[in-house]
Design goal:
This protein is an all-beta fold and 492 residues long. It has three domains: 172 residues, Sandwich (Jelly Rolls); 122 residues, Sandwich (Jelly Rolls), CATH 2.60.120; 105 residues, no CATH class. The protein is 2% helix and 30% strand. The chain has two helices and 29 strands. The protein is globular and about 70 Å long. The two termini are 34 Å apart.
Amino acid sequence: MLALRTQTLLLVTGLASALAACGDDGGADSPDARTTGTPDGGGGGNPDANTTPTACTASSFECPDGLPVCDFMAEMCVAAVDACTGDDAAEPNDGPSQATVATGLTLTGSVCSQPSVEGDWFRVTLTAGSWRFNMTWTATADLDAYIYDMAGTLVARGISTEASEVFATSDALPAGDYYVEILQYDPMATAAATAYSMTIEEAQCAVSFDCASAAAPVCNVGLCEAGPAQCTGDDAGDTAGTDDGPAGARPYTAPVTAAICNTPGSEADWYSVTVTAGQGLIASAAFANGDIDVVVLDSTGQVMGQSFWRTPEVVTLTYLPAGTYYVVVTNFADPAVVAALPYTLTVTTTAAQTCTTSTQCAAVYSTQYYRGSCTAGVCQRLAPAAPLANGMPCDSGDDCTSGFCSYLSFEADAQDSVCSTECTSTAECAAVGAGLTCTTGFNTNFCLPACASNLECGVVSLGSDTLDPGQPWDYLTCTTPGAAGSCGPDPM
């Protein structure tokens, strides 16, 4: 599914992610995400286990078998305390060192929230691949689940407020053993235990591009299925929810008049377009009211460009590699609406051109993500065989040893993008390369190419509708434009 516009920009660089970061979502950090120490393995309590007082900072993975639970307030490892009424026979299994070794992929038990450190831990063996976790319970309660690898790294979680938790791993996991932690979030400080059951199964998909059937083109929490089809007044092409993913995309043949709502938020209309090497693509969605958005992806699901704040919405791409591209239309409305909004989609391809330098790949930038390699006459993502040192050209943080590329989305001087690093002053940027200045005004600043205008500073969030004059985005601000030009947030 596509990310909502109100979230952080569909980031293509680790640098933009760091600049855009503005705090926690309230549930992002697991209570037992590993900080230091090594898990003891698991398999139930040991009466002769170490009970020497042990400090912990934020994780039960730091605690020994005899004191298996980290009391986060006291920052001390404590013994498991079974104060639940109606608890299961697996107790004590309140920490990773006491985890119940599962004999299959169905976990059952009961958990309460008295004391607050109460939780049930299991150790399961998984084959390599993506996995789906489905936990249900019958009582009026809110249970959460966290999945860790053996090093204590959080790999998946289910922390919704729904009456069940269904979630999947976003990345394929290597084969091995994993820990499952189950907690009762609500009601708090309650001794009455809530019975639960969790089934673990191999996921069919991680993203919709993993789904091959036009009848089930949407990846929904690890399962391929038809789209929701909940709009009223929808167009004839979406009555069964089959155009909500790439496998069900409608081949674009002429200007299309259609309609779309945003109930649920995953609702989308997909269209496929084929281009030859070097062609460009212009996708335009016109609408009379409301707010339509347009995103263009390649056949692997890579976002190529997008437009969110214009009327009409227009995405322009150039020097494309040959292949199939997907134009995705969504309806942005808050609160959500079921009444479909009419729109007209026009997609045209432009004559093939041959690039010779990466500068040509950066020439059209306002709705197109930079692809920093001009190879065989088309612009492609850089794909270095090994991470690159600071100062080397890049188009994504994945290219760089540091994890940071100076490219910020939709910037006008993308051809100058290089692998970069943090800084506290411009003087420090000389070690990265010539012509770089240190950003100002962020909690963490980085070395970027000196700016001559806001357009050379790029965009770090799609959430703002305070657009620069004549531009489709809210750009960062260039202070003292010129050789000393430095990018920073908009002045308050």
